């Protein structure tokens, strides 16, 4: 460890003497300074026999634009004021100084540290090389006893940093503005002018591993220093008495809530006994004789264990809503404009770290097979919990808010312009959390980052950008491989066609395949059309930036294999998309009843977009499933619905039914081609070769199968294995016995309208029936 403890002497006739208290510690009356020249720049050097290395001020390096080199192994430095900092860079410089009549010049390596009252500290290495005579009574350097040895690097260095031109290979975004716009901008903001010289030479990637490793060491040091803030589980006992406690104020004449007692399985009863015993011992719940009694259920967690879920719907209905505002996201992000370093802290079970007001504890009572209990800490499921939590966060962090920290519920972001400032800021916040006995989840925290995700945005030294996840459902949409794929994509595109200039012309290369006369053939023209429409979805005037003062709505839908949704706002009498969302259903979710699939789509979308929706007084959720309008008043909930209800209680929303044709965008998102439950066999792949070889074992069909393989093959199947030759032989034997084969083989036969529609797209190829040239017809026989 480098020590920078200052001695108590001074050099007469050099600089005004500074008291040792200027360094934050009372080491004596005066210090010893000399004037030096550092690479031609005048500097003040402190002679310090207590410093184990030679140091240079970080601010001096920045002010004089000196080149630094990263150290391979950052070192800890304890400053005179007791601060411990990590030193991760150094400079090589020419030092010129005079002692009496002796003038010396030498090359010197100096570690860069956040010094306050000296530009340079010449410590024991410098004193050992020069071995000066010091008059300790007057605090004067008399002479140097020996000539300096050749400079020796004290610390191994990493490869020098490349020039700034190579710091990024990302494409440059250039905006062209008129003279008038530039003049208007110059009146309100600083305007910087840069001359760009294009070059054809390749730009190498900037090395970032050393910088990331250095920042990781800073983070590890902070995690270690404030380890009590990051426990594995919350300590037993109540949180300390804070200025903010949770209240449950009800409307006048409200009667105590008394819900039903739900039945539980033996496994759930075992979990209930364990929960009661653990929480009573921890002091977070206690037996209750309250007239209030809300029901509880158990819902499975991801690891298979069970979690208790309070059904506070009746209590929430008669609770006076707390209108304490949640911060506007755009206001928070505006504070980050000049920040270069970021740390994100996520509180652990945040609600359980706030006490319920003693006079209102009885209202949280819940009934179980083993008696009634009430919550002493704020439970999940209460409608005013977010407002209470935000009030506490604002109260605790008020001295630092918007200066170097912003807080949205349990998400805390620390931001700084310099690394030195960031060390100090992170330390202040973690110390505050430690003093207030607030605890964080280490696995969800990120310290000392150049960029991070926060409130649905990516924040970095380059500014704030939208999280790509908002349009990932559109951006990742795969290239259509059949007419059906085009129909799904254009079904969504048509909904926003009024915002897309020349939509019909742009989409024509794809829409031409919707006529039955043209075979599907994807080429460069279609690829350009598809890419252009995807880009149009993600930019103005279709997609807009979120504005909290405007009306907002959410539309959702589900299919057999996916869920989708779109978040929209009303701009000038028209609804514009803000974000798109979709995901594939898991195998278990595919077995849900249709109603619960539709409800899952609502829960998923509201959870993803909670940052936009939690503080909205009332917004509409549009669905094409009629019965979901009554979900909020449903008397009894199953376990799955109870879990979802707990997630939805933080939103003020109304579910509204709309007909399916009016819900085309979520419908298309839920039918994302990548979610389909079939295997796609593309030309030239191993799977196609296997299928072709198997089909080739059947007499006289190899040629037609090879032709069919020129387009993607879709097989509705449970497994991934190709059909056996025996099975395909059975298909070929049974096909001539079908009505479809008889009608197709004799076009002169009369057909009903239903038969005509059924046979559309079917044709006979070498004794087999193929649909749309790519799917094999399997007879029921």
UniProtKB/TrEMBL annotation:
Domain of life according to the entry: Eukaryota
CDD domains: retropepsin_like, RNase_HI_RT_Ty3, RT_LTR
PROSITE patterns: RT_POL
EC number(s) given by UniProt: 2.7.7.49
GO molecular function, one term: hydrolase activity
Top EC category: transferase
UniProt KW keywords: Endonuclease, Hydrolase, Nuclease, Nucleotidyltransferase, RNA-directed DNA polymerase, Transferase
Protein name, as recorded: RNA-directed DNA polymerase
Organism: Tilletia walkeri
Lineage start: Eukaryota, Fungi, Dikarya, Basidiomycota, Ustilaginomycotina
């Amino acid at each position: 460890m480098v020590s920078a403890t200052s001695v108590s002497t001074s050099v007469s006739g050099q600089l005004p003497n500074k008291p040792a208290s200027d360094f934050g510690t009372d080491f004596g009356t005066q210090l010893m300074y000399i004037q030096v020249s550092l690479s031609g720049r005048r500097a003040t050097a402190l002679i310090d026999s207590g410093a184990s290395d030679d140091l240079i001020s970080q601010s001096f390096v920045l002010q004089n634009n000196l080149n630094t080199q990263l150290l391979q192994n950052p070192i800890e430095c304890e400053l005179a004021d007791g601060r411990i900092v990590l030193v991760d860079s150094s400079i090589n410089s020419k030092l010129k100084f005079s002692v009496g009549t002796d003038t010396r010049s030498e090359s010197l390596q100096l570690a860069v540290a956040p010094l306050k009252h000296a530009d340079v500290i010449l410590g024991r290495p410098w004193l050992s090389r020069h071995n000066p005579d010091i008059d300790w009574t007057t605090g004067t350097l008399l002479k140097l006893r020996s000539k300096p040895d050749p400079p020796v690097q004290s610390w191994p260095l990493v490869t020098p940093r490349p020039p700034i031109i190579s710091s990024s290979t990302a494409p440059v975004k250039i905006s062209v503005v008129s003279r008038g716009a530039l003049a208007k901008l110059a009146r309100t903001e600083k305007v910087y002018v840069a001359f760009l010289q294009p070059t054809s030479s390749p730009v190498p990637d900037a090395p970032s591993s050393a910088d990331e490793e250095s920042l990781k060491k800073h983070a590890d040091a902070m995690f270690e220093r404030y380890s009590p803030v990051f426990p594995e589980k919350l300590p037993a006992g109540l949180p300390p008495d804070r200025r903010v406690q949770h209240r449950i104020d009800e409307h006048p004449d409200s009667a105590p809530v008394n819900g039903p007692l739900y039945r539980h399985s033996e496994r759930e009863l075992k979990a209930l006994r364990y929960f009661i015993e653990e929480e009573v011992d921890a002091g977070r719940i206690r037996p209750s004789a309250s007239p209030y009694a809300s029901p509880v259920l158990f819902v499975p967690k991801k690891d298979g264990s069970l979690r208790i879920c309070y059904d506070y719907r009746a209590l929430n209905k008669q609770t006076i809503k707390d209108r304490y505002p949640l911060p506007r996201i755009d206001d928070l992000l505006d504070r980050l404009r000049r920040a270069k370093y970021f740390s994100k802290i996520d509180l652990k079970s945040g609600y359980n770290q706030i006490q319920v007001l003693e006079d209102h504890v009885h209202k949280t009572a819940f009934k179980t097979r083993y008696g009634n209990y009430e919550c002493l800490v704020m439970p999940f499921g209460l409608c005013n919990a977010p407002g209470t939590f935000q009030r506490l966060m604002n109260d605790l962090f008020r001295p630092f808010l918007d200066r170097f920290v912003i807080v949205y519920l349990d998400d805390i972001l620390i931001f700084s312009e310099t690394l030195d400032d960031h060390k100090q800021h992170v330390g202040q916040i973690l110390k505050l959390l430690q003093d207030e006995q607030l605890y964080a989840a280490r696995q969800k925290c990120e310290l000392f980052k150049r960029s991070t995700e926060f409130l649905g945005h990516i924040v970095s030294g380059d500014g704030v950008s939208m999280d790509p996840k908002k349009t990932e459902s559109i951006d990742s949409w795969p290239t259509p491989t059949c007419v059906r794929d085009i129909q799904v994509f254009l079904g969504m595109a048509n909904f926003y066609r009024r915002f897309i200039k020349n939509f019909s012309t742009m989409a024509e290369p794809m829409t031409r395949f919707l006529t039955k006369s043209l075979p599907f053939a994807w080429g460069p023209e279609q690829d350009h059309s598809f890419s252009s429409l995807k880009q149009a979805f993600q930019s103005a005037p279709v997609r807009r930036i979120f504005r909290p003062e405007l009306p907002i709505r959410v539309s959702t839908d589900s299919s057999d294999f996916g869920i989708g949704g779109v978040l929209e706002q009303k701009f000038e009498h028209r609804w514009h998309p803000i974000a798109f969302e979709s995901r594939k259903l898991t195998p278990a979710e595919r077995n849900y009843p249709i109603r619960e699939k539709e409800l899952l789509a609502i829960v998923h979308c509201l959870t993803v977009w909670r940052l936009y929706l939690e503080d909205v007084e009332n917004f509409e959720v549009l669905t094409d499933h009629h019965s979901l309008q009554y979900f909020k008043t449903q008397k009894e909930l199953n376990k799955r619905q109870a879990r979802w209800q707990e997630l939805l209680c933080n939103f003020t929303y109304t579910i509204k039914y709309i007909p399916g044709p009016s819900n085309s965008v979520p419908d298309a998102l839920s039918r994302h081609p990548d979610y389909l439950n079939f295997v796609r066999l593309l030309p030239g792949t191993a799977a196609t070769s296997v299928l072709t070889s198997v089909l080739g074992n059947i007499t006289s069909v190899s040629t037609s199968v090879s032709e069919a393989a020129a387009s993607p093959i879709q097989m509705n199947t449970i497994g991934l294995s190709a059909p056996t030759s025996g099975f395909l032989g059975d298909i070929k034997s049974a096909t001539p016995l079908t009505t479809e084969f008889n009608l197709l083989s004799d076009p002169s036969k009369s057909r009903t309208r239903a038969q005509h529609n059924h046979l559309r797209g079917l044709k006979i190829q070498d004794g087999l029936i193929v649909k749309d040239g790519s799917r094999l017809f399997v007879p029921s026989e």
